[in-house]
Design goal:
This protein is α/β, with parallel strands linked by helices and 341 residues long. Helix content is 32%, strand content 18%. It has a six-stranded parallel beta sheet with strand order 3-2-1-4-5-6, sandwiched between helices. Helix 1 packs parallel to helix 6 and helix 7 crosses helix 8 (239-246). It is globular. It starts with 5 loop residues before the first strand and ends with a helix. It holds the Pfam family DUF1611_N. Residues 42-129 form the D-glutamate N-acetyltransferase-like N-terminal domain. Residues 137-336 form the D-glutamate N-acetyltransferase-like C-terminal domain.
């Protein structure tokens, strides 16, 4: 997608729910103009009031209402359980296609099979596809001269993509030759390219990351690699191939302030942050690394706190870890950039 597209984001029950991360991220960082946001539960409400995103974009209740704002692309910004659209929402997608809209789909279920007759200007982008020509990882990225900065987390959905994007944006402002590498559906939608790591067979996951990093390395001085999952999460397999494939030079640890247990596995505790830092550094220094790989800073997600409590949480983490810490979305990320580049 380009800046010339006008996008309607399908976010049913995702603005206030738990499965709208992809659409909300595109609202913050996407290149295309946003014509409307679609959410039956929030139609007619203020986007700024319900999301904190200060953009004057209407929220409508369905695709039919969104058509009045002249979009040309329908972006599915939700991730329902199992990656399958409920029948009623699928009918809305079909309605959009009949009206001439193209579709960006980040779900595990491809939508191309539903549409065999598209207009010449229409397309369906099913993002979660395994790239061709993959092989196993062989630690080739360790020989690159560019910096490779990987975000890692204490849990899923704590802000790894946002941290990478904010740092990339700050680096570009300084004139640094910087590139963001997307590894999930949201990051790929924003960057326009990348690998859908959770669609790649596990044997080739590290190789896919390695291939992406090697292809970008010659043209950039800093690569910001979007993190996925967490080594602490019992259901996550994505973080290890990201470490193996990218051979990072620096790690940024991302954590939600005050979180003590894995969100969807409350019986699994998050160790104290110094122990988490040691874990990531130990894992990163084996499997091909030639140098010690350090966590250089902590990106703290303080979205649920007011400004005063957010600053207290940041100060507490800095004292606990001895590392620079901030919320890169809420506060200035310029000093934070100095600590990791």
């Amino acid at each position: 997608m380009t800046a010339n597209h006008r996008v309607a984001i399908l976010l049913h029950q995702g603005i206030k729910g738990t499965h709208g991360k992809t659409g909300l991220a595109y609202l913050r960082y996407g290149k295309s103009a946003i014509a409307a946001v679609i959410d039956a539960d929030c139609g007619g409400q203020s986007l700024k009031e319900v999301t904190g995103i200060a953009k004057n974009i209407p929220i409508v209740s369905n695709v039919q209402e969104a058509l009045a704002y002249n979009p040309d692309v329908l972006l599915i910004g939700i991730a329902p359980s199992g990656g399958i659209l409920p029948d009623a929402w699928l009918e809305e997608v079909k309605q959009g296609v009949r009206a001439g809209l193209s579709v960006v789909n980040g779900l595990h279920t491809p939508l191309n099979p539903y549409f065999d007759r598209l207009q010449p200007q229409q397309w369906i982008w099913d993002i979660r596809q395994e790239p061709s020509g993959l092989s196993i990882g062989l630690a080739k990225a360790r020989s690159l001269s560019c910096q490779r900065i990987l975000t890692v987390g204490t849990d899923m959905s704590v802000g790894k993509m946002s941290t990478s994007l904010e740092c990339h944006k700050a680096a570009q402002k300084r004139g640094i030759k910087s590139k963001f590498l997307g590894t999930g559906q949201g990051g790929i939608m924003i960057a326009g390219e990348g690998i859908a790591l959770d669609a790649i067979r596990v044997d080739f996951a590290a190789g896919a990351v390695e291939k992406m990093v090697l292809e970008a390395a010659n043209d950039y001085d800093v690569l910001w690699i979007e993190g996925q999952g967490s080594l602490l999460h019992p259901g996550s397999t994505a973080t290890l191939p990201l470490i193996r494939g990218s051979q990072p030079t620096v790690l940024i640890l991302v954590h939600r302030a005050g979180q003590t247990h894995i969100q969807h596995a409350p019986h699994v505790a998050i160790p104290p942050l110094p122990e988490v830092i040691e874990l990531y550094e130990q894992v990163a220094k084996v499997g091909g690394a030639t140098d010690t790989v350090n966590v250089k800073a902590i990106a703290l997600n303080t979205f649920h706190l007011d400004t005063q409590d957010a600053q207290k949480a940041i100060d507490k983490v800095q004292q606990m870890t001895g590392l620079p810490c901030t919320d890169v979305i809420r506060f200035d990320s310029d000093r934070f950039l100095d600590s990791v580049t």
